[in-house]
Write a sequence for this structure.
């Protein structure tokens, strides 16, 4: 049986979502799987809600994940995890960065950042794996590796060995490879 | 499992695959104007050897450049987004008459759902209206194969070829086979062919007949073109579809019979008729307008489509299944949470200008670019946005309609790249016809929204090589604008003074709001000294918060909390500045009247 699955990456423009989804795609391709990824560029990237769809399997047709069909959600920001709830199903696994970024309505005091966000997911029997990507990234010495912490946490659920991921990182990460690998490994520990 | 060999397949986006295919097809000249979702095609093509690539000031110029290069015998790629083809429509309709020497393919990258556009027009109609063939791929691998074929079609049938992608083809990544570069078949040289290239009525009438002959030949060709293919399956429903919709149909109904249309125009009507005869019912699945459906029905073939399938926005397999009454399962309802619209970056120069402009009782005619975000709260400083360059015409039209009440009431805001694209003629009109409007050129030195493409005012070209930088002040003076002022939008006070003087002026004036985009590489490298808020001094007046800077957030306080902090009980909160996000632009420092913002080192 050839594995297949749907991974949704979401967060705020500028958080390194495209690189995280790219690394994951390369690891799946290395294993001989077909994959397609859909991104949105342009206006939404200016601090807006950003999403990337990654699908893999024997042969992938649609580049978009249907509502109710995301097996994994990798959320770079807490509220964004809840925004994409309609894409999830009861068996979905959600890896969520506990980092919070106030959207304009919250930053200007017009609305309040919700407090019960993750219970919105756990109440629906969705498995949630919260992690503080920012602190872990700081601890490995490079604040911009938070996205690799998230990829690490996702990687233990995928039909890809750790070695394959490490090979991909070596090929694709141009700078601060050691810090990125450390972030990835720390991420793995959270879900292993 | 067969292992994907990285040697013969690459992981490419639709746009990267198109660039690769253009190079393989022997393209030597490429021109276009940036626009989502088309921009990355030329950004990638310019990295290949032996292809001259340029950003033109607008799509009309790009297509005209393409025609000249084709007349010389070169294979040419011209790229634009869907609304760009409106700008290029004038040369497009006559390029259909002249035909080509070297193959010319025009990419129209459409944006159903309007992810980054002002409308979701369906550019398939252009193929019908301009009497041109149009091809539509479904994914990056097909985009490469089909683009190469498009150049052959262009030369064989003496016609420009329209090549339509949509966001979910252009910005989708997939595995793509690659090949070697081959030279185009036509020798590049000046060859004068007046009967073909000089479209005076006498010649044009002759060429009009050539078009009819060409379309007849193309109609025969598409019947045997292998990319118009049938996936045999269950005969109950036969789907006719093309482009991205084909993949959605395959996902939703993997066992159905499908006729995949690659040539959106002209359509293979005989093949469609044969297919329809083999199935019980024909359903057309297409995004946006009923283009296939209308033409297939007009050919007398029974089918349905838009009675079920939405004619607005993007499709996906879920929507198609639901439309056709298939079980889709229960879906979690969305949770009500604060929206997250895009916002200008911390330190964006546009913010300072809009902060000031919002205070005037004027109609602010806006334009297309990052600065369109000035519409959003808390700045809320834009009253119209139509198309590239429209701000200037709209402001002038309003000025004329208001008549003797117009003085000090109309302002146009337009970016440097948009001004180059189609703002200059609007300004010529303003001066010529004595407008009292003020045009504000938001000059951040780059085409920012689409990801930093150089333009004729930037001082560099697509390759990053030095190029002439148009002097906007001299240009405006040459047009006849007597009052041209330059301001630094970060300097809130000076900016306000200049705005007041020029808006009130009873004649056309131009303000150049000059400060570079903070995302430019040289700006990113500039050392930044982040600001901080001194909570003790903050009275919670909210002035800095109304800048809408992502680095500034409002921290609400209860009466008890306020009292505990030694503040008045009625103080509702205070402002906090994120040191990680702050770029140190100083706009908030300039608007604070309570010495509650400063450099962290100045904190006492």
């Amino acid at each position: 049986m050839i594995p297949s699955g749907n991974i949704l990456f979401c967060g705020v423009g500028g958080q390194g979502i495209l690189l995280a989804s790219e690394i994951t795609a390369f690891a799946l391709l290395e294993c001989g799987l077909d994959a397609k990824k859909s991104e949105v560029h342009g206006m939404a990237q200016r601090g807006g809600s950003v999403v990337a769809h990654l699908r893999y399997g024997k042969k992938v047709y649609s580049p978009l994940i249907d509502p109710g069909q995301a097996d994994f959600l990798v959320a770079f920001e807490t509220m964004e995890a809840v925004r994409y709830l309609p894409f999830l199903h009861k068996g979905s696994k959600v890896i969520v960065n506990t980092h919070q970024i106030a959207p304009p309505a919250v930053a200007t005091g017009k609305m309040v950042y919700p407090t019960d966000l993750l219970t919105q997911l756990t109440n629906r029997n969705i498995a949630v794996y919260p992690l503080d990507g920012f602190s872990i990234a700081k601890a490995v010495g490079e604040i911009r590796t938070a996205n690799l912490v998230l990829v690490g946490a996702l990687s233990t659920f995928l039909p890809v060995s750790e070695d394959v991921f490490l090979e991909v990182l070596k090929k694709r990460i141009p700078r601060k490879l050691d810090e990125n690998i450390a972030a990835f490994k720390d991420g793995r520990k959270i879900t292993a | 499992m067969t292992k994907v060999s990285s040697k013969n397949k690459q992981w490419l986006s639709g746009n990267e695959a198109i660039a690769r295919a253009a190079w393989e097809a022997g393209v030597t000249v490429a021109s276009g104007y940036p626009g989502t979702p088309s921009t990355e095609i030329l950004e990638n093509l310019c990295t290949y050897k032996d292809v001259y690539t340029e950003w033109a000031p607008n799509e009309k110029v790009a297509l005209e450049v393409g025609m000249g290069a084709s007349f010389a015998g070169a294979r040419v790629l011209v790229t634009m987004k869907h609304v760009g083809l409106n700008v290029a429509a004038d040369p497009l309709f006559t390029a259909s008459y002249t035909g080509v020497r070297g193959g010319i393919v025009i990419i129209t990258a459409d944006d159903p759902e309007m992810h980054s556009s002002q409308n979701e027009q369906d550019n398939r109609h252009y193929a019908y209206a301009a009497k041109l063939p149009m091809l539509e791929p479904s994914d990056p691998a097909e985009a490469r194969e089909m683009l190469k074929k498009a150049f052959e079609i262009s030369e064989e049938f003496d016609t420009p070829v329209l090549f339509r992608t949509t966001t979910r083809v252009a910005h989708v990544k997939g595995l793509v086979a690659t090949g070697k570069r081959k030279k185009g078949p036509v020798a590049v040289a000046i060859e004068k062919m007046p009967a073909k290239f000089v479209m005076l009525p006498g010649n044009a009438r002759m060429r009009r007949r050539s078009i009819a002959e060409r379309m007849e030949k193309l109609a025969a060709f598409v019947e045997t073109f292998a990319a118009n293919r049938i996936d045999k399956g269950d005969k109950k429903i036969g789907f006719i579809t093309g482009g991205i919709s084909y993949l959605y149909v395959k996902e939703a109904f993997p066992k159905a019979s499908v006729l995949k249309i690659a040539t959106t125009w002209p359509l293979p009507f005989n093949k469609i008729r044969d297919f329809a005869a083999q199935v019980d019912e024909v359903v057309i699945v297409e995004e946006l307008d009923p283009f296939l459906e209308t033409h297939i029905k007009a050919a007398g073939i029974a089918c349905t489509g838009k009675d079920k399938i939405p004619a607005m926005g993007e499709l996906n397999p879920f929507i198609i299944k639901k439309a056709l009454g298939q079980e889709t399962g229960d879906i979690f309802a969305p949770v009500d949470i604060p929206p997250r619209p895009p916002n200008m970056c911390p330190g964006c120069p546009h913010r300072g200008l809009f902060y000031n402009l919002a205070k005037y009782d004027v109609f602010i005619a806006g334009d297309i670019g990052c600065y369109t975000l000035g519409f959003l709260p808390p700045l809320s400083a834009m009253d119209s946005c139509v198309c590239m360059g429209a701000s200037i015409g709209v402001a002038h039209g309003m000025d004329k309609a208001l008549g003797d009440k117009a003085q000090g009431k109309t302002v146009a805001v337009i970016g440097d790249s948009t001004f180059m694209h189609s703002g200059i003629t609007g300004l010529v009109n303003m001066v010529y016809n004595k407008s009292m409007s003020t045009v504000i050129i938001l000059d951040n030195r780059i085409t920012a929204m689409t990801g930093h493409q150089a333009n004729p005012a930037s001082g560099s070209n697509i390759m990053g090589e030095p190029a002439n930088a148009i002097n906007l002040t001299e240009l405006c003076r040459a047009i006849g604008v007597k009052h041209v002022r330059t301001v630094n939008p970060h300097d809130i006070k000076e900016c306000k003074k200049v705005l007041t003087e020029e808006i009130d002026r009873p004649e056309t004036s131009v303000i150049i709001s000059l400060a570079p985009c903070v995302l430019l590489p040289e700006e990113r490298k500039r050392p930044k000294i982040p600001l901080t808020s001194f909570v003790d001094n903050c009275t919670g007046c909210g002035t800095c918060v109304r800048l809408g800077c992502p680095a500034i957030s409002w921290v609400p306080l209860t009466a008890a909390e306020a009292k505990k902090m030694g503040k008045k009980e009625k103080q509702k909160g205070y402002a906090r500045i994120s040191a990680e996000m702050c770029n140190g632009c100083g706009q908030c420092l300039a608007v604070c009247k309570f010495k509650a913002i400063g450099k962290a080192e100045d904190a006492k």
Summary: Chain A has a mean pLDDT of 95. Residues 5-191 of chain A form a domain with the Pyruvate-ferredoxin Oxidoreductase; domain 3 fold (CATH 3.40.920.10). The longest strand of chain A covers residues 88-97.
